[in-house]
Specification:
Chain lengths: 798, 163
């Protein structure tokens, strides 16, 4: 392991200064003169034809400026591009409903008013006549194509992919036992505390749109907006403010709002702003993909898995938006933590009359991890083994690392076996198994559950080529620019966006490490501006990429700059470059002790330029775009690719009790073991790990979006879609088992999504608790009412 | 609503007087953000669950989206911007910073104001008290563990005194 001076230190988080003083700037804090505000009238149905819209009354309301209906959009906009080839590629997607509504909450009318109160009021003045259609809400119904979400493509199945490695048929024949199972991963949303929003300004002289938003990958969404607005990328300037109030993946799909606002800004020649209400955020701010798995797994008596065959139906909602990209993202963790070689997975990406999905923390892998980890417990129960034993039997061995999986992934190190032993120790697994027996005698329902998940980071977009080899996106890249200014201060720009990952601090640590200065002396430019910041097209904060991607770019730029600094110093000090190094901001010769401060050197480099050697360009600036080598960079015809760079893993253990009186699940003990590789700043990494674990707890115990038979969402606000509060959050314990990444620049792994770790652990524990009652859980979320009925079924009459 | 329905409202926020003619239905949080232009106080929901808009009104913590600005006429209000004194952070602010008790920071202003009121009414809270006292403030990032630590640190820094 390398010895670092700054990387790995839990230095105080600079970024935190702004929120603790109330000086942080988020989207809605930015005000421009003469701004008008938008409110959307949204569909109350999951599926309906729009017969008539009457907004004449709204226009009479004082303060209302303009009304735009979705019906008019084709006059102004082009539909968004689609990833798959036809027929799915012919799907028509506008940011508002044109002729029919396809999901609850789809925007139908936009009202523009002088203030947000008036805009909202005016929604009540609008009459829309709908012809209600039967929606298709269940993914297995949707594949029958009896009700079509998009008539223009003639099917609800937008893509089918098959991953087939080894010989699954033979493996199932050779098994002692073949187990068949069904699991359902449910829909929920991550609900960042700041909802999505945007503001657009149009410059009529230059025909340029400036779009402010809290989007987390602005350059990636730019081509979508430009296609819709029918302009080249140079006509749209993307700005994100210094602070984004959380995203967890969801703030990728807000480009639909940006498009409508840009259009309105052009039509009305005024800045236009819109921020989602919480209700709009829960209904339409991006749901996780619901997924139904049919699994057939072959096992030996000792628990060894011989092969697995899976058919999965992914519910992506009414518009693909970011899909079917998600349909390939899960294949980063195809075989989970297990050394199974015979794997066949058939995957359907399916439209339903539900709101569009978006990346949600753990995007697409979380569902797949859940399937594996539930399956391991089911295998254990069938064979009469301990779930720990089955896992240990099938885990990839430490000596097999880096491990090349059947689909071409290259797992970058780790020791699953030792990490699991650590988990069992801290969870006091054996003690709880004994206690469980005691409690069962007393009629108490105590359960113990474990799960292990792969939390892959820094994705390779080339996996999209599995869907459409002609779609022009692959790999990953990030840009950094570092400048030592004429006063000797170090200024850094990176193309990332920060939604709570403390980039100022961790990026400063990386640059300080290379440049031999103190992190406090480094100024990271906060916020993003496509006209003045640096960026690469893949720039942003998603897919747990920046411990690898931003670090790679910063190291590249810092090394380039250091080379130049040493070259100039060598000339000025008349010393061989190899004798020189930078130490606490001073360039010193190890041989003679001669030195020059970075400040003095910077002054010469910028202002006293005739003192520089003739072949040296004035100034101290370097720019670098990092592009990692994934080793298997593009998929072959059998979808073999290394589709992400790092594969951190987490092990989760919970002890729970199902309360007999209420059916509530109480977490008695929770332990997480993480292996993030080298942590650039442990405070940041631990924060991400604990936060991700809380989201897993919520997904299992709180968060589920409920639909009625018309596709309307029944729990669209924090009253009934309830986030974890401090009084209900478990006192989880976090420990590390560190192995450095074999793939990334400083040995760090991307973390922060947690792979949905606690979800399967909690469901496993609940099923374990209710084993005496023979309860089988199918879903990734449990509800107290349903559990109460189970634990009291002998007492309930009729 | 017609112009003549506007009412004149005055309140003192962080020691400074703000007066405006506003619609009677304007929420206090909108007065603080849009009239006084103090953007540190946030809006995170529409049902008064999240607590991002928590401020201190006449010494008591209030979710400022649950109160009309007219109800705060004549009131003394403290927001996140008013905690810093003579360029020195308040011990609660310091404690949040030292314990990295935030990530995206969107809940932080409301959370800190709730801690301010909690420590004012209970200068030496137990963990149980902290969990009960802050149950009205939602943080989506941290899992709350560092927030609990920060409140304990703040209580120590204040030496059992009220903030």
């Amino acid at each position: 392991m390398n010895e670092y001076k700054w990387i790995g230190k839990p230095i105080k988080i600079k970024d935190d200064y702004y929120p603790v003083t109330g000086k942080a700037t988020y989207l809605d804090d930015i005000e421009l003169p003469n701004t008008a505000y938008v409110a959307f009238l949204r569909s109350p149905y999951g599926h309906a034809k729009i017969k008539k819209i009457d907004y004449s009354k709204a226009l009479q309301r004082k303060g209302v400026i303009y009304v735009l209906t979705g019906k008019e959009l084709p006059n102004y906009l082009s539909p968004y591009p689609q990833i798959p080839k036809p027929p799915a590629g012919n799907l028509v997607d506008y940011p508002m409903a044109v002729e029919k509504v396809r999901y609850y909450g789809e925007p139908v009318v936009a009202v523009v008013a002088e203030d947000k109160y008036t805009a909202e009021d005016a929604l009540e003045d609008i009459d829309i006549e709908y012809e209600v259609l039967k929606p298709v809400l269940d993914v297995e119904e949707a594949v029958k194509n009896e009700i079509l979400v998009h008539e223009e493509i003639g099917t609800n199945i937008i893509w089918i992919g098959e991953w087939n490695y080894g010989d699954v048929e033979k493996a199932l024949k050779e098994a002692d036992l073949v187990i068949e199972d069904k699991f359902i991963f449910h829909r929920y949303t991550a609900a960042p505390l700041e909802t999505a929003g945007a503001m657009a300004v149009y410059d009529g002289i230059n025909d340029v749109y400036t779009i402010y938003s809290n989007n987390i990958m602005p350059m990636f969404t730019l081509p979508l907006i430009c296609t819709a607005l029918r302009v080249p990328p140079s006509k749209v300037r993307m700005i994100t403010p210094p602070n984004i109030g959380g995203s967890f993946g969801t703030k990728i799909i807000n480009y639909t709002y940006m498009t409508v606002l840009a259009l309105l800004a052009r039509l009305l020649k005024r800045p236009i702003k819109y921020v989602e209400t919480r209700t709009e955020n829960i209904t339409n701010g991006g749901h996780s993909n619901g997924r139904t798995f049919y699994v057939k797994v072959g096992v030996k008596k000792d628990g060894e898995i011989t092969g697995i065959s899976v058919t999965a139906y992914d519910d992506i909602g009414a518009y693909p938006r970011y899909e079917p990209a998600g349909a390939v993202v899960w294949s980063q963790v195809l075989h989970g933590m297990y050394r199974v070689k015979n794997i066949k997975i058939t995957f359907y990406s399916v439209l339903t009359n539900k709101p569009p999905t978006s990346p949600v923390r753990g995007y697409s892998r979380i569902q797949h991890n859940f399937m594996w980890e539930r399956l391991m417990d089911r295998i254990a129960k069938k064979l009469g083994l301990d779930p720990v034993e089955v896992r240990l039997k099938n885990y990839i061995r430490p000596e097999e690392m880096p491990y090349e999986g059947p689909s071409g992934v290259i797992y970058d190190g780790g020791n699953y076996i030792e990490a699991l032993k650590l988990l069992l120790k801290y969870l006091e697994y054996d003690k709880w198994r004994e206690l469980q027996k005691e409690y069962r005698k007393q009629g108490r329902y105590i359960g113990i559950g474990i799960s292990g998940v792969i939390d892959s980071g820094a994705n390779n977009f080339a996996q999209v080529k599995m869907i459409n080899k002609d779609f022009p996106v692959s790999g990953n890249s990030e840009a950094a620019l570092i400048m030592v200014d004429p006063g000797g201060d170090i200024i850094v720009r990176v193309g990332t966006t920060d939604s709570g990952q403390s980039h100022d601090t961790t990026f400063s640590q990386v640059v300080a490490e290379i440049l031999g200065v103190n992190p406090e002396d480094i100024k990271i430019i906060r916020g993003f501006d496509s006209w003045s910041n640096v960026w690469a097209i893949h720039s942003g904060s998603y897919a747990s990429r920046n411990a690898v991607m931003a670090t790679g770019a910063l190291i590249g730029a810092a090394r380039r700059l250091k080379e130049k600094i040493l070259k100039i110093a060598s000339f000025l000090l008349k010393e061989d470059e190899s004798n020189l190094d930078i130490n606490n901001g001073v360039i010193v010769s190890k041989v003679t002790g001669r030195s020059i401060s970075l400040r003095d050197l910077a002054t010469i480099a910028w202002t006293d330029v005739n003192l520089l050697p003739g072949d040296i360009e004035p100034g101290l600036v370097s720019f670098y775009i990092y592009r990692p080598d994934f080793r298997r960079n593009l998929p072959d015809e059998n979808k073999r690719i290394n589709n992400t760079l790092t594969y951190s893993y987490e092990l989760h253990g919970v002890v729970i009790e199902v309360d007999k009186d209420t059916g509530m699940v109480k977490i008695l003990k929770q332990v997480v073991i993480g292996d993030p590789g080298i942590m650039i700043n442990p405070l940041v990494v631990e924060g991400q790990e604990i936060g991700a674990a809380m989201h897993g707890n919520e997904a299992a115990l709180n968060f589920r979006v409920y639909f009625d038979e018309n596709g309307a969402i029944l729990n669209p606000n924090f009253l009934n879609y309830t986030p974890m509060t401090i009084d209900r959050m478990s006192n989880l314990e976090l420990y590390h088992y560190i192995t450095p990444s074999t793939s990334s620049p400083v040995g760090a792994r991307g973390v922060g999504e947690g792979g949905g770790g606690p979800i399967a652990a909690i469901i496993n524990a609940v099923e374990d608790a209710l084993e005496p009652l023979g309860v089988k859980l199918i879903m990734s979320n449990v509800v107290s009412e349903e559990l109460w009925k189970e634990v009291n079924k002998n007492d309930i009459k009729g | 609503m017609a112009e003549n329905n506007k009412v004149r409202v005055s309140m003192k926020i962080n020691g400074r007087e703000y007066t405006a003619e506003i619609e009677p239905r304007m929420l206090l949080v909108d007065f603080i953000r849009d009239i006084a232009k103090l953007k540190g106080t946030k809006i995170g929901c529409d049902t008064s669950q999240c607590g991002a808009c928590t401020v201190i009104v006449n010494g008591v913590s209030v979710k400022s989206c649950t109160m009309f600005a007219v109800e705060a006429d004549g009131a003394e209000i403290l927001t996140i911007e008013g905690l810093e004194q003579d360029g020195k952070l308040h011990p609660i602010q310091e404690s949040f910073w030292e314990n990295h008790a935030l990530q995206c920071g969107y809940c932080t202003a409301g959370m800190i104001m709730s801690v301010y009121y909690l420590l004012k009414t209970n200068p030496n809270p137990t963990e149980e008290d902290i969990r009960r006292g802050l149950a009205g403030n939602i943080c989506r990032c941290t899992g709350y563990i560092n927030i609990i630590k920060a409140v304990k640190t703040a209580s120590q820094k204040l030496g059992g005194n009220k903030p």
